[in-house]
Structure of Regulator of Vps4 activity in the MVB pathway protein:
Amino acid sequence: MADQAGASSSHLKIILEEEDDYDLIYGAESGWVEARTQCDHLASLSSDLAHIPTPNTPCNRCQHPSENWLCLCCKDVLCSRFVNKHMLEHYKQTTHCIALSYSDLSVWCFACDTYLDAQVIRQLRPVHETAYILKFGEAPPHRSEECPQIEDKQAKDMPSGS
Ligand SMILES: [Zn+2]
Ligand SMILES: [Zn+2]
Ligand SMILES: [Zn+2]
């Protein structure tokens, strides 16, 4: 009597999507330039980086007034590749390859053709800090490698309700 209803067998097909977004994870497209934490040319750094010219020192060649580079090998101050390329020229003539930007205090290695992380590389940290103090008048904020001392600066003279 009862007809056997047409067996409806619905097989759920599980579609395994292949995940091929490795590029999204590893690609460096967002304009973020990674600074290296090591460089083979640190031996050429000047041995006296405790005393460096001030950030507003003009280019030693063309007197360009600002945003120059400091050669960390001989402490010459030279303009950028966007001005008269004197730092680049200096590198080609002397092979002094490590320079610190007085515009944003980044450190560039011409030989590695990359930025160097001056807060991680031990040899660069002191000069970065010195330059930072010269530029901003205070020490750079330290990365949390040690517990920061929380200074008790709670407002002590909060006006109590009268
Ligand atoms: Zn110049
Ligand atoms: Zn130099
Ligand atoms: Zn290098």
Observations:
- The mean pLDDT is 81.
- The longest helix spans residues 125-136.
- The pocket of zinc ion (ligand 3) is lined by residues 39-41, 97, 109, 111-112 (CB under 6 Å).
- The beta strands are 69-71, 77-78, 98-101, 107-109, 114-116.
